[in-house]
Each structure stands twice: as C-alpha cells, then as structure tokens.
Design a protein that fits this description.
The protein is α+β, with helices and mostly antiparallel strands and 294 residues long. The chain folds into 3 domains: 61 residues, Dna Ligase, domain 1, CATH 3.30.1490.490; 77 residues; 69 residues, no CATH class. The protein has 10 helices and 7 strands. A hairpin with a 2-residue loop joins β6 and β7. The radius of gyration is 46 Å and the shape is rod-shaped. It starts with a strand and ends with a strand. InterPro entries: LYAR, Znf_C2H2_LYAR, Znf_C2H2_sf. One of its GO terms (cellular component) is nucleolus. This is Cell growth-regulating nucleolar protein. It is found in: Nucleus.
Length: 294
Amino acid sequence: MVFFTCNICGESVKKPAVEKHYQMRCRGNEKNVSCMDCLKDFYGDEYVAHTKCISEAQKYASQNGSFSAKEPRNKNAQKQESWMDIIRAILDSSEYNLTGPVRSAFQKLQSVDNVPRKRAKFENFVANCIKIPRQQATQVWDILEKEMNKMKEAKQAELAREKAEKEQQKKDAEAEAPPKKAEKKQKQKDAEEEAPLKKKAKLEATEDAAPEKSTNGISTDFDWPAQLTKLVAKETDGIFLEKLRKKLLKKYTKHLSVEDLTEKQAKKFQKRFDKQLKLADSLQIDGDVVKIAS
C-alpha cells in the first residue's frame, strides 16, 4: 500500500483516502501530496498512477553507492501488478467505448492497489469500498474478464509461435547436418541394438566352456564320457535313457556337493547330458535304451 503526505496540512494519508482527504480536511485546496517512500511530489490526479514504490532497502541503496539492493521476488505482487496493467490498458483502449460511469469506476480502481482478482470478491470490494453500484460492478468485471482472456490468448499464441520456431530450427539443423554425422548416428544405433544379442551369445558360450565348480570354490571337471560309459557298462542288456539320466544326475549332484540342483543348474545338466550322450562314441542309443556300442 502506497502512503502519501499531504503537503498542505502534513497529514499521512493512504492512497485510497487521498480523494476523501481533499473533500473533507483540505477542502478547496488543489491536491498536492508527496510519496512517503520515494519523496516524489504529485499534483492534481498525478498520484493515481503511482501504484508501486521503492522498498526501504532500495531507498537506502540510492543513498549509499556501496550497497546494492535486490528486487524481492513476490509472485503475488507480480500477479497484482499484471492485474493493474489490465485496468490501465482498458482505460487507454478505445475498443470498449466506456460510458461515463464505467470509465469513472475504472479510474477509481486505478488508484487502488489491492483490487481482488476473483469475481465475487471483486464485486463485494467495489460495492463496499469504492461505493460502486452492484450492477455497475458486474459490467466492470465483464470488461476486465474480456481483456484478461484476450491477453491470455495472445500469450498462448506467442508461446506456440516460439515453440514452432524452435522445432523448425531443430529440423533445419538436422537436415543441414553432414551425411557422415547421420551415418555415424545410425551405426551407433545399430551397435546398441546388437549389443544385447552379442552379450547373450558370449554368456552362453562362457557357461558351456566353463569348468564345473563345487560349492567349496574348487574347480573340478565332471568327466561326462567316463561316467556315462561306466553306468551303461554295468547293464549287460543296456539301460533305459530316463534311468541313466537319474543315476548320472545323482552323481552330478554329489560332485557339486549339494543336496538339490538349482533351476539353472538343472537346465544346464539336462543340456550337457543330451549333448554328451550324442558325442559319446562308445555308446549307442536304441529307442529309449542306451547300450555299449558294438
């Protein structure tokens, strides 16, 4: 809130009360006030446009060159200032063809720096504080709302235009990029897509080639051919494939010094069992029976 000092009687007066002061206390005198913060003098209705003044810090900074005051960041104050800009813009515009009473209402609003920004509060404020009839207050609000929506649309259009310009600049930059750069980018993309496949193949190959490990950390190879041949040789007429697998699984589990295989170990066992059985030259598979090759 801006405060003034009457240069005629010396009384301190709030901005909204200046008009009343010169109608009651200093009646008959021309308005002559000075701002209590910036000490600037105003004559007649010049004080109306003085809606915001310097802070104490800024006042001190103007007197002391070694001190630099920072402008306080008050979002609510910025919104209120924008709201007052709308009121001033309406008064300066010829678009609305304001009637005498409506223009007078806007001029009164211009001299107040705490005008509400919501319809219900606005209508109560102007009716009770500025003494504007309720019907007239509604007309004033409709004009304010129209100007506010117009400013919002203009701002949105400006933001959309800036966004479109940035996107176009990005496309132009990509189109003008050297072919080698685009080719390099494509190769990098292909390499990123192939990397997981290569990693998986390498991991599978490593698992097949790696020696069996017991739980105590000592690396020992499980002799698949010898164990298979030994189990099949015990059976003169051959051994059923499932029975051979179970017997070998028991030996394999004992070799790893565990009671039961994990899901991963069981899958690995089955894979190696099938592979080693096919590679064994000393064995012969006849349907579901495995025999010593003749």
